[in-house]
């Protein structure tokens, strides 16, 4: 916050508090010339207005509120850039700006501790680590092929999934357009436990260039899309698919294989099943061929750490291996 706005907010806040105090003082005095408890000379429908002062308890509560506000603003942040005498803050605003969210968070917590600052978020993280750290350590020491049979661990993994993964893959893990379904057996890079953990830890970046980076003319795209429809076992135009096969052999097979079954080493999809990340209609297939696709899953090792990723891996694996 700039110095101007800091001063503006500070002055405005103090003026409002002072205004409340003087307003309360003003209305607490009798300026009417009518003795307290006597009639003000107003009568409506049998109801007479008396010159009664503000209730003492109400006035005292108001004064207490003003004193409390001043003490609170002195101890905690609230007046512009003033940090308060307690050095309290809700969180470290520098988190996630340099190395990685988890690494930055740990560094910020250590710095706040050295400087004697009271950061509420840091305190909550430390209490959570003290309570749940041993639990995650025990899970991390358990081989994945054993952890997938631990019901409590899978429940924990499910909660971590909802907090961190459901935004893309959905709360039911069935994904959406451009986001893989994790409950089936179709895996771009492989569905083994070790492969799933590698994917979550390091992320994935999949990219198909427009036309696969091959010398394919726009006039060939329709036939190529028809050939891919044929590969997936659907009704197709045989003559058009035959033309598309020639286009496929220009180089599409280098990633998707001669038979179109894909390549998990490269993350190239299997074109012979009916599972489509972006959609399997002829129009969508043609769009994919023409414009290419680019997808990215971020790495979670610096966000959650390996112990939590270990538990999520077991949960994700359990979704497609009941």
TrEMBL record:
Domain Cytochrome c: 152-232, 239-320
GO cellular component terms attached to this protein's record: plasma membrane
Annotated positions binding heme c 1: 165, 168-169, 297
Entry-linked SUPFAM superfamilies: Cytochrome c
Record GO biological process: oxidative phosphorylation; proton transmembrane transport
Compartments reported by the entry: Cell inner membrane
Main location: membrane
Pathway: Energy metabolism; oxidative phosphorylation
GO terms, molecular function: electron transfer activity; heme binding; iron ion binding; oxidoreductase activity
Domain of life of the native organism: Bacteria
Keyword Mitochondrion in record: no
Annotated residues for binding of heme c 2: 208, 252, 255-256
Cofactors that this protein relies on: heme c
Biological function: C-type cytochrome. Part of the cbb3-type cytochrome c oxidase complex.
Family classification: Belongs to the CcoP / FixP family.
Quaternary structure (record): Component of the cbb3-type cytochrome c oxidase.
PANTHER family: CBB3-TYPE CYTOCHROME C OXIDASE SUBUNIT FIXP (PTHR33751)
Annotated protein name in UniProt: Cbb3-type cytochrome c oxidase subunit
Species, as recorded: Shewanella violacea (strain JCM 10179 / CIP 106290 / LMG 19151 / DSS12)
Lineage of producing organism: Bacteria, Pseudomonadati, Pseudomonadota, Gammaproteobacteria, Alteromonadales
Gene behind this protein: ccoP
